[in-house]
Amino acid sequence: MGAKQKGGGSKPKNQADEVEETLQAVVLADTFETRFEPFTRDKPRCLLPLANTPLIEYTLEFLANAGVEEVFLYAGAHSDQLEKYINTSKWRAPSSPFKQLTFLKSTSTSVGDVMRDLDGKHLITGDFIVVSGDVISNLPIEGALTKHRKRRETDKNAIMTMVLREAGRNHRAKSSSISPVFVIDPTKDRCLHYEEIDHHSDEHPARLNIDSDIILSTPELDIRQDLIDCSIDICTPDVLSLWSDSFDYQSPRKHYLYGVLKDYELNGKTIHTYIIKEDYAARVRNLKAYDAVSKDIVSRWAYPLCPDTNLLPGHTYSLRKGNLYQEQGVTLARSCVLGRRTVIGRGTSIGDRTTVHSTILGRNCKIGKNVQLDGAYLWDNVVIGDGSDVRGAIIADGVVVGKNCSIAQGALLSYGVKIADGVKIESGKRITRSRPDGSVGTSDPEVVGEGGEGYEFIHGEDEEEEDDISVASSGLVYRMPGLSLSNASISTLSSEVSEGSWPRSGRSSFSDGEEQDNFHHDASVSVFDSLREGTSADVVQLELVSLRMTTNASDVQVRRAVVSSFMKYIQQLMEGGKGAGEAVKEVFTKYREVVDRTLFDRKKEVKKDQVDFLLQLQQDLVHRNKGASILLFTAKELYDLELVDEEAYEQWWDDERSS
Question: Rounded to two decimals, what is the model's pTM?
Answer without folding.
Answer: 0.69
